[in-house]
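User: Quick sanity check before I run a bigger batch. Here is a single chain. Can you write out its predicted 3D structure?
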Amino acid sequence: MRAHALFLASCALLVASQAATSNVTTCTPAYSWSINSKNQTPCLVAAFLESVCQGAVQVNSIPVGTHYRGPAPTNATLCLCSTPVYSLISACGGCQDRNFISWTEWAANCPQGWKLSRFLQAIPDEVVVPSWAYLDVTKTDNTFDPIIANLSLANSESTTLSPPSTALSTSRNRMQVL
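Assistant: Done. Predicted structure follows.
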């Protein structure tokens, strides 16, 4: 019975990860650092992580003057309500020279206990999550900080459940896309 459940969970993960797509294949020069070692944009990495909880997910480009919205109450999953997905989506907006919202705004519809600073689900084999996605956004005014993220690149990427450890001080010189 347990082997059957593990097989079904593996199949679900495989189907979900294959459904992850993004039409954002490059980033502006200011966000070129956010592309991982597999040449995946943060948009595609976010799509892979979201797909673990939701099945087929596309994180596509957004119009000028807009930003990605946080989850609606009806689709607030453990994946969407994690700061790694928030940080990746924020960087995805930055890649397109778009705005991004604060973590507080992003997580407004997430149940209180779900506002996680880690990604608890298995990371699909097809993707690596940059260490900066695990940075604690509550230490940078509840907002993704691309300068701090860029500075953290000396840390490794993750293909496991545990985030890499980071020890960075915060900077008040925040490069926010307006």
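Residues 1 and 7 are 10 Å apart (CA to CA).

User: Great, the batch can go ahead then.
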